[in-house]
Amino acid sequence: MSTRAVQRALRQIGWPVQVDGVFGPSTKAAVRDFQRGYTFERLGSSGRAGPRTRAALRACAANGGRCSEHFRFREFRSKGDGWIKVDRALVHGLERYRSLLGRPVTIVSGYRDPAHNAAVGGASSSQHLFGNAADISPALSLSRVGDLRAFSGIGVDATTGLVRHIDVRHRGPNPTAGTLAHPTVFVE
Prior knowledge:
Layout: H1 3-13, H2 25-37, H3 51-62, H4 88-101, E1 107-109, H5 114-119, E2 133-136, H6 142-147, E3 153-156, E4 163-167, E5 184-187
Parallel strand pairs: 3-5
Antiparallel strand pairs: 1-2, 2-4, 3-4
């Protein structure tokens, strides 16, 4: 798989990289972010496209850009610059959430690039900036989501009392010291 083929696969999956044959900083960052979010195999996050990463890229592109059984990388794309960042722990947690819910989950907001995060009034230390968070359509109570022990940050809708934000801040940075057993809970 040539550098151009790696770049084509990344574009097909959803990353806004140039297909120029140069393995520069943008391509390396996209490969690293792909490795970090891919759940079918645990890849190191080196940013190098070795044989395992190239095979995973081919498989992912052939499978509609899926990072897990039910989620695609594109679902976590920033609505600002179009970049994708997601931690595999978040995707694993979302798979467990989906199973509990018993139906598909809509990702309202995943990764936010810094400019987009500022434009929507996001916190300067938002977990969205790191690919560690997702806003979802409110459907389950705090106690049901907390019982999953899959998220170290949980945001509850002030109006409905249902969970609308989940994150894996324990994957870092973790300014509130939230854990899977004792998540940071806040009202939005």
